[in-house]
Amino acid sequence: MSPAEAKQQIEALSAELKQHSYNYYVLAMPAISDFEFDKKLEALAALEKQFPEFLEPDSPTQNVGGFITKEFKQVKHRWPMLSLGNTYNEQELLDFDQRIRKAIGDNFQYVCELKFDGLSMSLTYENGKLLRAVTRGDGTQGDEVTNNVRTIQSIPRQLKGGDYPAEFEIRGEVFMHLKAFERLNNERVENGEQPYANPRNFASGTVKLQDSSEVAKRPLDCFLYFLYTEKPLFKTHWESLQAVKSWGFHVNEHSRLCNDIDGVMAFIKEWDKRRFDLSYDIDGIVIKVNSYGQQEELGFTAKSPRWAISYKFKAEQVQTELLAVTYQVGRTGAVTPVANLKPVLLAGTTVKRATLHNANEMLRLDLHEGDWVFVEKGGEIIPKIINVNLEKRVAGAPTIDYVTECPACGTPLTRVEGEAAFYCPNDGGCPPQITGKMQHFIGRKAMNIDGLGDETIETLYSKGFIRHISDLYTLDQHADELKQMGRFGEKSITNMLDGIEKSKQMPFEKVLFGLGIRYIGETVAKKLTIHFKNIDNLIAATLDELIVAEEIGERIAHSLIEYFGIGQHRQEIEKLRAAGLQFVSEEKEVVLQSEALAGKTFIISGTFEKSRDELKDIIEQNGGKILSSISAKLNYLVAGDNMGPSKLEKAQKLNIPIISDEELMGMLGAV
Ligand code: IVH
């Protein structure tokens, strides 16, 4: 074979394999068998070996783990996604208004809209159906994230009414509500994951996730603010907003039609105050010329339209003195630096502390003792240090460096590859980690123990009464000592011991969540107890068995295996079991409705219209059995959207029939 021929073949095979990888991993719709895929991959590898000069770094043979595409398909925008010019004060806005009037005269109106702080999204609809969702990307082309966007409840998959054009594009902003942000970010911390800095990062991180079922768990919303059609349908932007609303899109209710720049100014003044009452972040106001005809007359610069501009709110900023940097050690051992500040009033509240996030942030700020810092509270909940006022720095003031040893127990800190946080590895002996784990265990979402609070845990720990969670269940043997200590009244001791006794009735899922295993949040704990029924099955489960359970991916599976692999953890579980805690899930009694699936075995994987638990019930009520892992004993794999590739691969290797939920219902005669 000549080098030219080899080059051509390598390119053709690479392109073909990339397409198959995409079909397989992104669309979950393989077009060829694994065997055929492997043959082609082998052929490509052989050619590349013979002609190494044509080996490209992005060849399917070079990717880690074979050929997993961690990327989204790139799609070119039909109309470029431009940005907006920014203004920051009244004068700049008056200048904008002057430019407009010079170009089109005085007869025009503005539409004022809130400027949502999220990520922009372009949606294409065909015959009323959502066809494609693409991120802004570089403005010319972006990532195709349709599967993820389909999980956003407020984005219609099917439009209402019938007066929409057969084909159009609509743009808007995807964002996360502040309440959901706080809840999910707290959950991340509880599960031992890094929190997101603000709702915008959380929303954009979510849209770019590979696993759409994970996206579905993080509620996003989307306001639509611009319609693109081949032929103009309306005369004004305002009309188009009303129309798209009637087609079922979420259009923000605070937009306002203004007759002149004074009206715009009034809108801005109003929302500079009211923005703190909203349930989502905005960072300014967008002002658009209403008439499409006038928009066309005004045209575009290279980067942005001349007919629209944004007005950015000033984030309120104050200066204050840095008193000290202290550190919080979380129950997972993550060590978070906190700036202690001289109290100062900011956006209506007194600020005494600001998070410094992690060691990287401290490096960026390069703090010195006695520094004066600028603190800002934008839309974000936690105040942030923007930078240091270098003019006020005292000459020779020593720097404040991130600690290298745990501030609580002195153990040298370690860093996990790819993570910004440093951890104290002494999880069995570091006091705040121990008390933090106990506080998590007794917490409202876990064992919800009445009569026992965080402070009591600290006291009981410092006095040597408790070292492990299981010690709570032998506290009754120390009732007299507790009374003698004089710290607690008789009544509160009785209440505490009663609360502890009652907690023995808490269901298995609460106990499992309470153990505080990394990445095992409330929902995951529940799914695990449903799937594995008892702790012994869960401890014995292999990686393959774990990942067939609903919502369990490899990251969670590895965390469980690591946790149960530690002897001390298993001993602790034994002590808790001996104390009478629940480690078996309450079985729901199956009422048999038919024998249609008798003797047949199933595994359900992926996302469906019904929940997987519902499908599981249906199978069991008709005599079928759910297996715990894919093996030759399996009769059917019921596959939904976004099923994990490893399961699909395994089932295909074993020639197990892969059926849809509809086909399953068909087996019952239900469709
Ligand atoms: S209109 C060509 N309207 O701000 C004009 N944009 O800085 C297209 N944004 O990329 C944008 N709220 O992500 C428009 N009500 C609103 C908006 C809005 C937020 C974002 C959008 C855009 C960026 C421009």
In summary, what is this structure?
With 671 residues, the chain is an alpha+beta fold. The protein is built from 24 helices and 22 strands. The two termini are 56 Å apart.
Describe this structure in words.
The chain has six domains: 3-54, Helix Hairpins, CATH 1.10.287.610; 74-312, DNA ligase/mRNA capping enzyme (D-amino Acid Aminotransferase, Chain A, domain 1, 2-Layer Sandwich); 317-392, OB fold (Dihydrolipoamide Acetyltransferase, E2P), CATH 2.40.50; 431-505, 5' to 3' exonuclease, C-terminal subdomain (DNA polymerase, domain 1, Orthogonal Bundle), CATH 1.10.150; 508-579, Orthogonal Bundle (DNA polymerase, domain 1); 601-667, Rossmann fold, CATH 3.40.50.10190. It is globular, with a radius of gyration of 30 Å. α1 (3-26) packs antiparallel against α2. By secondary structure, it is an alpha+beta fold. It starts with a helix and ends with a helix. The protein is built from 24 helices and 22 strands. Bound molecules: 2-(butylsulfanyl)adenosine. The site of 2-(butylsulfanyl)adenosine has 14 residues, from β3, β8 and β11. The site of 2-(butylsulfanyl)adenosine (IVH) has 14 residues, from β3, β8 and β11.
CATH architecture group name of the largest domain = 2-Layer Sandwich
**Euclidean distance between termini CA atoms:** 56 Å
Indicate the proportion of strand residues.
Answer: 15-25%
CATH homologous superfamily label of the largest domain: DNA ligase/mRNA capping enzyme
